[in-house]
């Protein structure tokens, strides 16, 4: 895949992802397992993240979003591809250098419960980043910082001595967020950070994230299924499908001028918090089976469920670039989209 | 659609009058407590709601307000100790299941009532393949053979749109993505086509297309089997799409009940109002989202009076002293609104103001 | 008691007993009492031994030395057979002895033939003939010795001097080793089932008095619990003969003595303290006497052994009727604290001096060793350093040059001659040092007195039994009393349980085994 | 995975060499001459000692001895024992068989007894049953096996006559020693089981299992058990290995002709070929058992990745 | 131990959290994990019983000369094998030594042998087990194969070699026992680490940049130690009993030393006739093990916040 063309603005990307691939081996048999294939969880994903920007990533569940996140954190070893942080390929780092990078890239995990050590109190969990990176907060300060963080994510500081299992799902998620914020990192990878929160707390958290972004010029990668919240917070949005990036652009480009059929289907399915609109809404119903990431379709991966699919789609893999039809045109539809037959289609926009 | 239940305090004329068949599930004045080192945490303080067959009740509310705990109490799977049901009734088909012996209650779980758990990864047993865990329902409750049960499992996985179900039926939970696990939980709950499903945030980890499919599927089942559904969720979009009626919880109590259309139009409780206003809106892009100020209450020290009073823009002295009851809500002209109730001293101002 | 029995199998009652796994049951290498028990019942040689140490002729019609004592002529009983029909004649004896002494057999017991001419050559592989042995007639065996020995005939009571049939082959013939064909009162019933069983049946073609038992069943027991199992087995009627763990003796005695099932024998052995006479601590005879006087044997015998062991006051055992003399060791007779201190002073032993006391562990010596140590400490004020080591390591330590102090030891007879005690334990040749100075022989105390050595040579050359006995007694007195080359402690007293309800004539023989050939069912 | 197994078996060979080399070194430095004396403490005839030394190559340096051992081992020859001078393989074969029989019986009792006791203790934590299990398990530890074995013997063999006093390898004679052996390990298994079960009982997926309406025993024996057995299986692997290595005291008490006591006797007699033979076998047993256990992990807990 | 007694006071104070920190924030005093654990431990009746037993053991060991009625080494050959009586509460042994005094003094060596050997074994076993479990691959292979050798290697030979180097005494016994039990600890720990290391919170800690040692000590160990804990508590007992086997094989402590295992071992042949000889030391071991097991269980439970 060609390097994505430099965006018009001259900012240096803080994170550059190039051709990231992650395959999980699929095995069969109980004792003597043999590999019978691979789940191609991430199969050649490239994108840039700029300083102070929020990149939203949406997509079908199981399309590899979390895997991308874990790859960015070097929590999984990539099958191939590179991740450059300020020009340095972090997939090859280890030891002290890696620790330094990790101080600057933090992650909020998707599963709020399993990512909290059941034997540590909330205070210890949130305080741990300070213990690991003592330079961030002097010892005397730490307790106060922990309480501030609890407060910030809307948790009662009185809960500081409680254990994770004593919290509700949403509360646990907030603990995870507090931990992610603790170090004031440059980049935070948020894997569905607010999915279990009620909208009010969600609003608090999103507000906080935005405030922090303004203050410290943070960059976020924001993975979520809630398209309206993604739209609210993101500067740019990437749409993934089956291990690949289907479409990427600014929030307006994606939400208002989607050119990839999958994006269009996705947007049309967004439920509207208004019971009056319950009926009569046009929804693109995707037919056909969801393909297995172990055995993705040839050519365009979406073609098995696409209403526009033609022979070409099975033969040729569409590249992620500005589609031919829109090339050179000054229209919001002229953004990267991996479809042979990209076209605009009016869908009921989210929110 | 039926009327919404009355609060525990007020006698229910419906049951007294023998108006019609009893609701599928009726929770009355449920109290649940947890013993903690620092004292007793009152997670649920007199929750009452009911669901009928074929009906969808959405339970909304602050996270930590006791939605899951109520659901667990209904299923009879509270962590006890430290948790215990401190009072109230749970009537299923009119019978108080809290009084049933454990062996009887067990027989209800699965074929009669099922639950979709909030946290799919920890709720699935890590050491058994998903096929095994799904098939178990059929093997145990219907005495199916291993082979048939597996076939059924594949069928269920197909039904919740897990790609390549046949190949992945022998995979283990950790090998699935968050959304897929959630769908497996859903499949498990649906397996025996129970009378009642309690879905605790079933779609939070799903993308909207799958979410739509799953909700459609639940709706279809519901129609087909005349099943009752309690849907616990934060996604007001989903609620709007599928719910018949809504109960809003705050600090272990129901603060407002309403049919789905009404609530969005005219909330009768400041908390509900705050919630609705917090929904991100296109025209707010770039601005701060509205959020209810303040912190959720500490369950060990629930504020006196209305639990919401420290955060409420409308709070008065009475709110700090008297606990507001869940009372029927009426139009300005006094006509009672069917199925609506609010536990706010100033509901009138809220709904009409 | 063992009155009922399940294994009244074919052809009358089987006599049942337990032993531990022997090294060998083939006379070629049968060595400990368990192995020789079987070997002596499968084979009959020239002599057996009576309980008083006198010889009981078996196949020997006569045995006569020449005047010098360096050649013996044995007339053998005619017309007896091996159980496979081969004749037992002088050749059979020569065959058997040659087989045992041959290099390839590497027999541990062949050294008893040491005094026979030509043994060295045969034993080291220089020759395959035993030059000292000749068949002067079909039933006449001539034995030429390299040095005079008027007690050679007594040695031949050892099972290694058994005759052998032709089928025996060489000493390492494994098939024969496990199922020997002999000329004894019994023969093998099947092969030796290692660690399980050895079954014997009566040899109906036996050339001497036939056995009355039709069958003997020998269970092989684990050495560490054999006495316990034998005792329990006797109690539950599974054995007709049993040893007992020492601590259980008083109870067993109370239970079985009255019923006549309790056998006691002061047998041919002694427990003693080995003294490293060349090393500092025990170099002077006075020091050795001081230690000996300090020990209260009677108290230990009573306290630790519950009165079931008796103090020894000589090295030679009471079973050696002709030479035994009690109280040879004057320091052994009675504890004498004053004398002990007196001798200690003489020897320059001061309170606080260290005395090393070694013993081998796990063999039941822990208790009395502690008692002795305590007494020596109390009387002489010495600091006794106990040093327990596993058996092999203990042995290595004893052999080493420079090992100091005292060591627990015991000896028992192979055949009833005083020489069998005095020579290996006390003669200079018994030291047998190697290049590094290790004492490889049995005289690990390295006692060496030319006068004593001379007396032993003289005794062997003395034809007259009474005169010879006198010399041995003098030699014993010199070494044990005057020089105190070792310190006798206890006699070897043995106890057995025997099922006298079912069997008549059960006795413990010289080798501490049941006299199987003479037992008869009631 | 197949490769994994092959690699582990390859490692076994290395471990075998390592273990026997260490053993050789130990035996070499031990004082005392393996062929220097008779079974008693009587000295051996120097000529015989010389002969045996030559025969068994004891006069050679350590490296040569080890080299000879390895070459013979490859040929399947374990040598000749120093006392009875029989083939080591022939001496050990019936003993191994006996020990294996006993070990198998013991481990079965051990697992059933231990797991059940642990289960009960965990389920009814701090109840009468839990304390009872704790007491019984401590008794099993505090009373040495010779006490337990002797009590069994005098009660069941001598007094009641239910079992033979002297084992003959039959099933009936196996019961007392097997139970004696099993008791201690069962106690440990019970404790381990209790410990991990308590952890698992509170897991969310147990809630799910309950919510599925599974009968209590399915919840316990399937969902809870499977998640709690990993440490237990580990210990059972070790303890089975230990049992297969022979139990000297129990074997001695019940006259069970196994390798445990054979080894001790061999060590006391410095009967090196037997020692080396037993240890060679023991290492192989442990490596294989632990391999099996490691493979079992992957079956029991699919999250565990074997590398 | 002392820490436990000392902080009774502040512990009570945390009952009213608001009062503790009188500042603006109504946050409670940050309860350290230790005080939390202590609280749960003390609340557990059996754990307290266990602790009392263990304390008793220590007290008896420390005050042995005051408690003992006789010199434990003094022989009285005129008075051997006496059944328990007023003069000799636990009777006398084969050398007429007072069993009661020997049992009392035995607690000293029991404490030393039991605790020291297990401590050593745990130290080695935990470090190696943790490394093997966490790193897997080559490290695991090497450590576990070494463990395999130690499993199969005869204790007796090891013990003999150690004794030959060091002479007989308590230290070689401790060493022998430790060297031959670390492998079990290592394998047990490794086995539970294998599942714990795959947990998300470990990944989360990695993502924070936590060092390996931190991940092992703070995250993996506490969550995998439960299984090992029950084993360890028990092993204190098995170590004392194992000493009996060593004595029985003649490589334990010297026979005159009053040590429980030693005493039991020398009572072996008195089974059925002088049962008091092994019964009292055995009971002493049982009580000790019971104490440690209760403490171990209590600790285990106290360390598990989910249990209540
Ligand atoms: N350890 C693993 N072994 C095998 N397959 C895996 C593993 N982890 C993830 N996968 C597979 O990789 C694919 C992508 O998973 P991932 O968790 O990245 O999805 P996702 O986009 O985050 O989905 P969701 O929105 O549901 O969380 C899925 O098909 C999943 O089953
Ligand atoms: N074991 C426990 N000990 C103490 N408190 C508990 C325990 N379990 C739950 N709680 C408390 O009970 C309250 C209700 O929890 P519940 O899980 O029902 O919340 P919820 O409404 O489902 O929230 P969410 O939307 O975040 O899932 C929470 O405040 C929680 O802290
Ligand atoms: Mg994900
Ligand atoms: Mg919840």
Describe this structure as you would to a colleague.
The complex is a heteropentamer of chains A (351), B (353), C (522), D (307) and E (308). Chain A is 28% helix and 21% strand. In chain A, the strands form 2 sheets. A 6-stranded mixed beta sheet of chain A has the order 6-7-8-3-9-10, sandwiched between helices. A 4-stranded antiparallel beta sheet of chain A has the order 2-1-4-5. In chain A, a hairpin with a 2-residue loop joins strand 9 and strand 10 (244-250). Mean pLDDT of chain A is 83; it is low at 1-8. Chain A has helices spanning 65-72, 95-104, 122-132, 139-152, 169-181, 199-216, 227-233, 251-256, 261-268, 311-315; strands at 13-28, 34-50, 54-59, 80-85, 88-89, 105-108, 187-191, 219-223, 236-241, 244-250. Chain C has 522 residues and is an alpha+beta fold. Chain C has helices at 33-42, 90-101, 119-123, 152-155, 174-178, 226-235, 249-256, 285-294, 297-303, 337-347, 366-380, 391-399, 419-426, 450-461, 465-482, and strands at residues 14-20, 47-49, 55-57, 60-65, 71-76, 133-137, 140-144, 186-188, 197-202, 215-221, 241-242, 262-275, 354-360, 383-389, 406-412, 486-498, 503-504, 520-521. In chain E, helix 13 (212-248) packs parallel to helix 14 (260-266). Chain E is mainly α. One adenosine-5'-triphosphate sits between chains A (24, 39, 41, 61-67, 110, 293) and B (174-180, 205). Chain D: It is found in: Cell membrane. Chain D: It comes from Streptomyces blastmyceticus. Chain D: Residues 96-297 form the ABC transmembrane type-1 domain. Chain D: It is a multi-pass membrane protein.
SSE pattern of chain B, N- to C-terminal: HEEEHEEHEHHHHHEHEHEEHHHEEH
Structural class of chain A: alpha/beta
Please provide the count of β strands of chain A: 10
Strand order of the largest sheet of chain B: 6-7-8-3-9-10-12-11
Please provide the count of β strands of chain B: 12
Morphology of chain A: globular
Protein name (chain D): ABC transporter permease
Membrane topology (chain D): Multi-pass membrane protein
Family (chain D): Belongs to the binding-protein-dependent transport system permease family.
Domain ABC transmembrane type-1 (chain D): 96-297
Layout of helices and strands:
The complex is a heteropentamer of chains A (351), B (353), C (522), D (307) and E (308).
Chain A (H helix, E strand, L loop, with lengths): L12 E16 L5 E17 L3 E6 L5 H8 L7 E6 L2 E2 L5 H10 E4 L13 H11 L6 H14 L16 H13 L5 E5 L7 H18 L2 E5 L3 H7 L2 E6 L2 E7 H6 L4 H8 L42 H5 L36
Parallel strand pairs in A: 3-8, 3-9, 6-7, 7-8
Antiparallel strand pairs in A: 1-2, 1-4, 4-5, 9-10
Chain C lengths: L13 E7 L12 H10 L4 E3 L5 E3 L2 E6 L5 E6 L13 H12 L17 H5 L9 E5 L2 E5 L7 H4 L18 H5 L7 E3 L8 E6 L12 E7 L4 H10 L5 E2 L6 H8 L5 E14 L9 H10 L2 H7 L33 H11 L6 E7 L5 H15 L2 E7 L1 H9 L6 E7 L6 H8 L23 H12 L3 H18 L3 E13 L4 E2 L15 E2 L1
Parallel strand pairs in C: 1-10, 13-14, 13-15
Antiparallel strand pairs in C: 2-3, 4-5, 5-7, 6-7, 8-9, 9-10, 11-16, 12-15, 12-16, 17-18
Chain E lengths: L1 H5 L1 H6 L3 H4 L12 H10 L2 H18 L1 H4 L31 H37 L1 H16 L2 H12 L3 H10 L2 H15 L3 H8 L4 H37 L11 H7 L9 H28 L5
Helix pairs in contact in E: 4-15, 5-7, 5-15, 7-8, 7-10, 7-11, 7-13, 7-15, 8-11, 9-10, 11-13, 12-13, 13-14, 13-15, 14-15
The complex binds adenosine-5'-triphosphate (ATP) (2 copies) and magnesium ion (2 copies).
One magnesium ion binds next to helix 2 of chain B.
